Amino acid sequence: MKCPTPWLGSKRGYLTDWITQRWVCLTGHRIESAANQWLLGSSGDNVCIGADFFERVAATQNCEIVTNAPRAGLITNFKNLDSDEFSYERLSPEVAKFYESTSDFQMDVWSEWCSVFKPFGWLLRFLFSQRLQQLHMPISPLETSRGITSDIIQLLDKETRQALYVGWLRTMVGSGDVIYVGLYSVCTPPKWNKPCLKVIFPLPNGHATVIMKPEICADGSLKLHSVGDAFGDAGFYFVVSDKKGHAWAKYIGAMKETIHVYPDKKNELRADHVLKFFGLVFLRLHYRMTSQVNRLNAITSTITAKATHS
Questions:
Q1: DSSP 220
Q2: Cα(136)–Cα(154) distance, rounded to whole angstroms?
Q3: CA–CA gap between residue 60 and residue 67 (Å, rounded)
Q4: What is the tens place of the pLDDT at every residue in 270-307?
């Protein structure tokens, strides 16, 4: 897609991106990288993020890319989130299996934009997301009617074979557009001081960081909340960095989201994702996650039933 705004050169990138970065620097916090690793992550290219982001990271950090290895998870061990308010032992086994073996699941998604915010969604797509191939949320449920891909990408150190990064790449099958490129890990924000799920979304000259507090419900389902009070808490951040190692971060307190992951009455795994801006819901996403093992069992049962009746 041709960018609707001017190109300012390889250092600044496109005008819309550069304006956003200046806003973060002018209104956010100047931070020291060494003391704020809980917030920092990989930055993206000035032109496009897209599916080849991981190849660019691997080339610069001498990593090997492994895609959809068996039982590869967004979080290698969900026990790393344990605290005095979160206990892995109380978590539904199906929910834990999804996060620890995400590559073994296929996904379907349905989206619902609030009608008031839908024009804003189109504007974001026009100015940023379609060009960048990042945070390209479906506007209409028909956009994902042919399904979405869900690829777990591990970047392994070539010498130690340890995973330096775990990424999640999701694309729309119909259009081929990237929904998002995310890097997953666990961090402890200083104000909350308990382990949280951390997701980095690379952007030009920086990234968005979403830090989510885990909560286990009475039925063993999981809720993740990017909800906090101020800088240093869980929530949504924009981070801009430069080649000199300086960084600026802007805490977006008006942006909040909750993800509820649970087995439904048929024991299918579901997730409800609600995003709010200044307390108003602007987007709902609903997911169905199907284990490859369960899918194969269902196919086998269907074949067996047909054979029995024939």
A1: S
A2: 22
A3: 18
A4: 999 999 999 999 999 999 999 976 554 444 444 444 55
